[in-house]
Amino acid sequence: MEIRNSLYPIFLKLEELDVLIIGGGNIALEKLGSILKSSPKTKVTIIAEQINNKVKELSAFYNITLIQKSYDKEDIKPFDLLIAATNNRILNEQIKLDAKEQRILTNVVDDPELCDFYLGSVVTKGNLKLGISTNGQSPTMAKKLRLFFEDVIPDEVEYSLESLHNVRSKLKKDLHHRIATLNSVTSVLDTDKDHKKEYKLGNVNPTDFKIYLN
Predict the structure, then answer these.
(1) CA-to-CA distance for 63 and 177, rounded, in angstroms?
(2) How many domains are contained in the chain?
(3) Residue 3 resides in a domain
(4) Residue 134: its pLDDT value, please?
(5) Residues 6+ apart with CB under 8 A from 36
(6) Boundaries of domain holding 44
(7) Pick from 72, 81, 98, 93: which is nearest to 21 by CA?
């Protein structure tokens, strides 16, 4: 079957990365809001000649550094992830070329062909997080799907996740204990002859093995 969407979804620990947004207008504000909604402790630097007042307001509450200047290719070097959010396509293209030289993953807003990754719509319910991508074809559809899943997935799913986590932890603990016990019991079957002399099979109770056959 043909795979029409070959994107590989990953979930980044943005709070451990340095993120740069070039551009300070409404487009930059939208992308900044998307980042902070999912990862509010992310360190974000914004470089732009003009910076939106709402962006400035957000910088008072989050880990945002504002640098009011024109773009220079040296600006991108210290960063792990880059978003080009200017309204100048020629400048966006240059930013992408500069970032590729530095091997920095880049999202160029509203230009899928220049993107290394997309900022998809995200559904969050406690520890449950779903990423939605339309392969850059329709951000509007992605937003509609996000609203749909936010509505149909109950908030109680967080309780289910916690319960499953506790069950998983208990199962792992029990399994490790059983394997350790089994290793101890079966050590008498070691192929080393001297080891066999020290431990006699006759000292092992066959009922010890029953718990592993259930």
Answers:
(1) 45
(2) 3
(3) no
(4) 83
(5) 42, 44, 58, 62
(6) 14-119
(7) 81
